[in-house]
Amino acid sequence: MIYLDNAATTLLKPPAVGQAILRALQTLGNTARGAHGYSTEAAGTVYDTREKLADLFNCTRPDHVVFTSNATQSLNMAICGVLSKGDHVISTDLEHNSVLRPLYRLQCEQGVEVDFVPADKRGNLDYNDFERLIRPDTKAMICTHASNLTGNMTDIRHIADIAHDKGILMIVDASQTAGTKRIDMQEQGIDILCFTGHKGLMGPQGTGGMCIREGVMIRPFYVGGTGVQTYSQAQPDRLPTRLEAGTLNGHGIAGLSAALDHIGEVGPENIERKEAQLTQRFYNGVKDIGSVTVYGDMSRDHAAIVALNIGDTDSGEVADELYEEYGIAVRAGAHCAPRLHRALGTQEQGAVRFSFSLFNTEDEVDRALYAIESIAKGI
Amino acid sequence: MIYLDNAATTLLKPPAVGQAILRALQTLGNTARGAHGYSTEAAGTVYDTREKLADLFNCTRPDHVVFTSNATQSLNMAICGVLSKGDHVISTDLEHNSVLRPLYRLQCEQGVEVDFVPADKRGNLDYNDFERLIRPDTKAMICTHASNLTGNMTDIRHIADIAHDKGILMIVDASQTAGTKRIDMQEQGIDILCFTGHKGLMGPQGTGGMCIREGVMIRPFYVGGTGVQTYSQAQPDRLPTRLEAGTLNGHGIAGLSAALDHIGEVGPENIERKEAQLTQRFYNGVKDIGSVTVYGDMSRDHAAIVALNIGDTDSGEVADELYEEYGIAVRAGAHCAPRLHRALGTQEQGAVRFSFSLFNTEDEVDRALYAIESIAKGI
């Protein structure tokens, strides 16, 4: 069985992840409740993981690393915690529904106004559009670091420069790049970085978070017990407590911590190189197969994703055949990216997405190429 | 080392929990993304767990079991998803900050009006107060099934009868009882049951959820990718998707599923009996130690919790001594229950909370009693 659906979740995790979770299941109390050893062990594990994430993303303060249960939660918290009635926000056609739906909801319920930078037929943005769309009441720009459909990456530094020039916040969805592409909050000018733990970071599901630049204020999304300032009616002001209510996923965070160690040992740049090689090998193989259309712009910076269709065959049919006849797991359909499908003209057909991880091999890529060639011949 | 802080999180889990997570880490894709075997395996695991929870709590529909990452999230979702501007709500002095803070916030930001049924000095409620506080605009009653501080249980059926008589919703916080006390949504008249996975259910941290009676409408709390209805700007209407955006904690849910199997094998009634025996043994031992004050009403239905103080010694000092001198982990302080501490008169001193699980033993109880006796002698 060949797993090429790593953009949905990385199936293979470093073995240390499971071992760390097992150990945590035997030793971890509640992270912020109590002063006994089990509880302080839990708090230590959580704090260490904040530090590792702050290091990886160059976030200046570990206490500004906030844990959530996935990128969707992080994005909801960032978007709803920053935008208020009457604000204007600029986003893009590349976004996932985890960005789009919170924006549509604020538009509908709060009168927040939203403009989208359009994507062209190759899924590229024109950065001048960000500048063009700025208004005096523009509060934030929200942009993905890489499309989850085409893998096209965006130049966050470029967009952030435009934003900061006008005092606008830069919020980044790093769901497809955290752990596999270089992210440097300082250098790229990221004010709020939203990420998930179970994709490129190779941690367990149920983990994710956000890194927040010093001075950026986000209203709490959910509120509750914090183990501190119990008699205050409001959620405590300080980060990370401000945005973390209730018991953290200590067991999952322990697993994420082990995954971060693995990333550190292999070297983030080696992971990026390996994934780029697999992606390029795959693209080189498919691009000349007659009747195959590849989406996105493979000539620019790219996440380890290639989306394609074979003739006008429904993407779901192709994915089913890949799985049933060749034992290859990919994802078809709309990928929660409705605006980009419209831009690419694939709203009806969807697209077949191949996505690679550190643990895939060249042989697996070649077997996927063989399968696509065979299916293409058959239609 | 003796762990008696199970009301914060059960440290010991059935061994099958860790094994299920390990297996899930090798086999589970994304629960609602794609149609390949890894993804359908994930979806199957999640659905099975919904069924087990629906069975345990007698929720009529497994698809009305919604996963969250802890009870705090469930409570925020229930409270904010049901109450609107101008609504009136009745809650109690027994509540945890996971109920109080969302209510205070709605009070402050939305003009929701809140009344609290007062607790007496033993932490009991007068059920007539629920009736007395009802107004024409009362939308919901929100009550814990057991205080996380004293362990006093509430008669949910009684309160729900009062509520339903006036068409008022009954929301229950089962953080301290799910898995260890009988919960029957039909019989007790619960409209929304909020629970966590990592306490009495003995699952991993990062799991929790809510069970929703058919016909009860809850607005989505966070919105995003759902893997279905991608082209709809709004979150899909149907449960559980309506309240679940983004990738579920499939690995954690697999662990919770194994924990539910363990509960089924041991028998919920046997777990309840075992915990009640330990609690009663502990209470019988402490109640006559001079200078020990036990809080709550041990003559009524009770969760496996005993809160006490020794003389006027700060609760934190006692807990520290228990841990450092006797290797006993308990929790001191305010327990996120500010209103109840005020009612008990323990706002300054806090309280030392002992909480038991299936995996504790009579010997551990006796050693805790010995420790308390020794500390009490020393002051």
Write the layout of secondary structure elements.
The structure is a homodimer of 379-residue chains.
Chain A: E1 2-3, H1 15-27, H2 37-57, E2 65-68, H3 71-82, E3 88-92, H4 97-110, E4 113-117, H5 128-133, E5 138-144, H6 156-165, E6 169-173, H7 185-188, E7 192-196, E8 208-212, H8 250-266, H9 268-286, E9 292-295, E10 305-310, H10 315-326, E11 328-329, H11 338-344, E12 352-355, H12 362-378
Helix pairs in contact in A: 1-8, 2-8, 3-4, 8-9, 9-12, 10-12
Architecture overview:
Chain A is of the alpha/beta class. Chain A folds into 2 domains: 120 residues, Aspartate Aminotransferase, domain 1 (Alpha-Beta Complex), CATH 3.90.1150.10; 252 residues, 3-Layer(aba) Sandwich (Aspartate Aminotransferase, domain 2). Chain A is 40% helix and 14% strand. Chain A has a 7-stranded mixed β-sheet, sandwiched between helices. In chain A, strands 9-10-12 form a 3-stranded antiparallel β-sheet. The model of chain A has no long low-confidence stretch (mean pLDDT 96). At the A-B interface, helix 1, helix 2, helix 3, helix 4 and helix 8 of A face helix 1, helix 2, helix 3, helix 4 and helix 8 of B.
Strand content of chain A: 5-15%
Task: Identify the CATH class of the largest domain in chain A.
Answer: Alpha Beta
Question: With helices defined by DSSP (H or I, 4 residues minimum), what is the helix count of chain A?
Answer: 12
Question: Within the largest sheet of chain A, what's the order of strands?
Answer: 2-8-7-6-5-3-4
Oligomer: homodimer
CATH architecture of the largest domain in chain A: 3-Layer(aba) Sandwich
Please name the CATH topology of the largest domain in chain A: Aspartate Aminotransferase, domain 2
Number of domains of chain A: 2
Helix content of chain A: 40-55%
Average pLDDT of chain A works out at: 96
- The assigned structural class of chain A equals alpha/beta
CATH superfamily of the largest domain in chain A: Type I PLP-dependent aspartate aminotransferase-like (Major domain)
Overall 3D geometry of chain A? globular
Q: What is the makeup of the main sheet of chain A?
A: 7 strands, mixed
